[in-house]
Structures are given as C-alpha cells and as structure tokens.
Amino acid sequence: xxxxxxxxxxxAWYEHWHRYHWIGPHLNHKTVADLACGEGxxxxxxxxxxxxxxxxxxxxxxxxxAKEKYQHLGGVIFNTANVLDTPIKDNNMDAVVSFETLEHLxxxxxxxxxxxxxxxxxxxxxxxxxDKNVYSATDAHHNEFHVKELAAEEFQELMNRNFKHVLxxxxxxxxxxxxxxxxxxxxHDSNTQALLVAQGKEFKYAKNQQLPTYLIAVASNDSAAIExxxxxxxxxxxxxxxxxxxxxEAQVERMMLADQRLAELExxxxxxxxxxxxxxxxxxx
Length: 285
Prior knowledge:
By secondary structure, the protein is an alpha/beta fold. Helix content is 37%, strand content 21%. The protein has helices spanning 11-23, 41-46, 60-70, 108-118, 132-135, 152-162, 190-194, 223-226, 243-282; strands at residues 31-35, 52-57, 76-80, 93-99, 119-130, 165-173, 177-181, 214-220, 235-237. A 9-stranded mixed β-sheet has the order 3-2-1-4-5-8-6-7-9, with helices on both faces. The model is unreliable at 185-199 (pLDDT under 50).
C-alpha cells in the first residue's frame, strides 16, 4: 500500500499538508471522520479545529504508529477499519474527510455509499483524487499502487450521482501548493490571474493554463453546508523557510555552474584539438 511519509519535504509535503490546513478551519466544533488517515498527521491537524476526529485506516501497524505519535492530543481517536465498512453509526458525522483514497479502490460507488451512510443529513464530504489525465499523463508517471484513477469528468459524474450539491476545487504545485475553485464552476478570480503573467508579457493578464493535478470535491445533500465555500479565495501553502524554492534555486545555480564549466572544458578541448592537429601536420601524420 502506498503511504505518504510526513517527513517528506518535497512536493508531496506541500500537497498533503495543504489539503488539511485548507479544510481545517471549516470544521470547527464538528465531529469528523478522517478515513484512510494513513500515519495520522492530517487527523492530528484537524483535531485542533474539530470537536472530535475519528481516524481510520486499514493497516493496523500504521494505526499503532499514529496512536503513539498523536493520540496524546486528546481530540483524535485512531482505529483500524476498512473504509468501505466502518464501525461508525448511521448519520453520525458532521463531516467526512478522505484525501487520496478513491484511486486506491475499484469500488467507488460503494465508498461514497459508506460516506453517505455515516454522514448526517446536512453533513459535509471533502474528498480528493488525482486527475488521471494530468497525474498519469505519461507512462513515466504511472503509480503502481493506484487501482482506478479518474479523469476530471469521471470524478464529477461520480460525485454528481451521489450528492445534490458539489463544488469542485483543483490543487496544483507552483513552487507552493495552490487550491482554487475550478473554472467548470467559476472563472479564476483576479488574485489568481495576477500571479500568472508570462515572462515578456508582464502587462497582460492571463488565466491559469496549467491543469490541476489533484481534484477536490466539497459535497453535501444540504446546499447550506457548502455555501461558505463558494466565495473562497484561492489558497496557497508554503513553509516559512521557502525550502522547496530554495532547493530549486540551489539546484539551478549548481546546473548553471556545471554548464559554465562544461563550456570552458569544451573550449579547452577545441584548443587542444587544434594544437594536436597542428602537431600532426608538422609530423606528417
């Protein structure tokens, strides 16, 4: 089973943590189920906002590690369970959070049926999955742990069949992580546009041309439950030290120095080749 390690400080760190930071403030004082919680960092983060977090994962060893690391927080309870058949009572959760779970299962309808079963009538589901047409655009990006990925249109069809009200957001990496309401529902706001001007066209505004890697749905059968999400500004997430960008800058500088050194060596080689040619001519070789 593929599992994200919270110590990873590259793209995955920004993407995974951002989703939980983004949704956390909207779950204040709610009873939340974090399903397929993995090592529990997200459940722990949600516990700072929610009234209580019930965190489930199918792997017993992973849950034991989560208990050792996070259960001291008090607001989160970790247990082993299959997300298709949780021990949660019917109509018991204010919200269900399940990030990067859908693609690991073939039983998509069964998964959403379970989510609906445990949600209250006005409950909220927040779910994410990679867009097959972006995440797996080439064979090099094939993920052996993914059982059934969905394209954006397939994801929307699945969600619309199961919930009366759904808002779609997209997440992509731009030297930080960006979550914004998708243009299928609403055009990009001007704050997002201002950050997406191409070099050489600094006086022109442009919409984001990059498709999001991850699809996020906020769904409910009660329209009031998702209303506050309609006007959300685009959300960005970074670390205080800007670590990934600094790493990128260091690598670019290293590559530029390597290119410069390569050019110098090529110049030396050209000069040496010329000298060798002259010597060979004098020797009649």
